[in-house]
Amino acid sequence: MDIKTIIRKKRNKEELTNEEIRYFVSKLGREEITEAQAAALMSYIYINGLTEDEILDLSKAIAEDGDMIDLSDIAENVVDKHSTGGVGDKVSLLLMPILASLDIPTATISSRGYGITSGTIDKLESIPNFRTDLKVEEFKKNLKEINVAIMDQGLNFAPVERKLYKLRNSIACENSLPIIAASLMSLKLATGSNKIVFDITCGKGTYIANKEEAKRLAKLLIKLGKSLNKEVACIITDMNQPLGYSVGHNLEIREIVMALRGMISKDLGDVVEAIGSIMISLATENKDLQENAKMIKEAIKSGKAFEKLKEMVLAQDGNTEYIDDPELLKKSKYIMPVLATESGTVESIDADMVGSISVYLGAGRMQEEDKINRNAGITINKKIGDTVMVGETLAYIHTDDEKKVNSTTQNLKDAFKITNKKINFKSRILEIVT
Fold this sequence. Notes:
The protein is 47% helix and 15% strand. The protein is an alpha/beta fold. The protein has a 4-stranded mixed sheet, with helices on both faces. β4, α10 (211-227) and β5 (231-238) form a beta-alpha-beta unit.
């Protein structure tokens, strides 16, 4: 068996055996094949696809090539949520303390971000001293004692998944549904959760273009879940504008804290309630989604979710003073408004453009070695459906580099489309697939 034979088979649209898939994963993990060979195979998979059996075998191979956690001794049901990413997506960091405050164990293995999607781990590490390099014993201890734990995928959980993620982005195969499905499921296999909700975002602010493509991925993930004895549900959400009001690490941590204090934007709140309701229904006997949404609202209103966030931060050695007072988080040297030059109603906000600008400002990385400026980013002052007058602030640019203010102001203004038509707020929840 050799990698060239495997590449030829996929080029010729033949089905790979389990042994061939495991050979590829093993060799890629140990860097015993070249990046060009891995890219060639990925390209042929992108063009010719994979069968369901191939995706299942690839999911298992990726997970089993690294460490895996057994959580069966923690609770009968452990729930996890995973998003395909997006601009300003901070849903996971809100749902973890909310569900934990409702006595629902929530375990997450997450990663750092690339491109316009920032990673959950990156955001948490904006909290001084917060530690994500937990040992498995610490992870399980936290989960057992406070119902919530998160750790860094980069330790040794599905390490090949991370390589595939970077590779498919670098060769413009980022929207390969078979590879996305295998990557997502391999991470969940490594985590050990038996109840999983996937938030499949679609639109300009993510790599899944439309609802139809998102639905194909959802159906594929549900089939994979059944084959792997995991109960899976998917929710398709719109990512055609940034989620919430902030994009950037310190900015998003501030928004998370304020949201758990009850000050949450309409669109972010809708997504949190919709996904959280499904997670509760999977993990408990509570199947009424509307009642579950009320439980989520009450967890926020009562302050229990906020207190659970503090418990989670403290359990992972983070400084809770920054949760009690998020204004302690460092701010950018320059915080400059972007002003509207026409009146009307916001019809659309190009999330991809906003995400790209935030990366340019320093809030994201394009390469693994890139450093993040945690102060940098964008805050959105006007959302779709909001009325705007000339001279009103559309958004704020946060940067430590004065030159970047001038070079991004017009681009950020161009991301907002203003119309004279009446625009009604539309829910970001497009469909629930179970």
